[in-house]
């Protein structure tokens, strides 16, 4: 079995400090999946654990929200031999662009790098509703939500992590005066 935690640590993907998450919450830890996803062999190795969990699902296409879900979507789709697409924000609304479209009834696996609150995944799902697709689950490299499902969608992850997160108005790290770092890509909450 792949030791995902070891690979993440060796890649410098585990960070400690005071972080602003894309959900708007604060955290004392952050998983910068881009540090492991920059190595195709390591990405293939850790995401195979997700593929092994979803390979028997009826999946037509894999869709990941930009930024974090793009490489994850591609690699999982590559291993499943399925098409990969991504959603992205246009005027702060997640949408399917770049000529991507989905057939009505298509079975879609949503993918992400890290799921904390699942906001990006849920925004991607919302963007795909107009196509009449069926969401078969959410796959991610790291699940730090503490949940096995997100709004009724089963979560499939390479690793489950227990990293503290706090509401921004009840953050002990803010109380300690620690500088807040925003490593994610979302501009607005």
In short:
The chain contains 6 helices and 10 strands, in the order H-E-E-H-H-E-H-E-E-E-H-E-E-E-E-H.
What report would you give on this structure?
The protein has 189 residues and is α/β, with parallel strands linked by helices. The chain is 28% helix and 32% strand. It is built from six helices and ten strands. The protein has helices at 4-10, 34-37, 40-54, 68-80, 119-128, 172-175, and strands spanning 14-20, 26-31, 61-65, 84-90, 93-96, 107-115, 134-143, 149-150, 153-160, 165-166. Strands 5-4-3-6-7-9-8 form a seven-stranded mixed sheet, sandwiched between helices. Helix 3 (40-54) crosses helix 4. It is globular. The model has no long low-confidence stretch (mean pLDDT 92).
**Structural class by helix and strand composition:** alpha/beta
Q: How would the global form be characterised?
A: globular
Strands of the largest sheet, in order across it?
5-4-3-6-7-9-8
Uncertain stretches:
none
Strand content: 25-35%
Residues in helix, %: 25-40%
What separation lies between the terminal Cα atoms? 37 Å
Number of strands: 10
Mean pLDDT: 92
Order of helices and strands: HEEHHEHEEEHEEEEH
Radius of gyration: 16 Å
The biggest beta sheet is recorded as: 7 strands, mixed
Helical stretch tally:
6
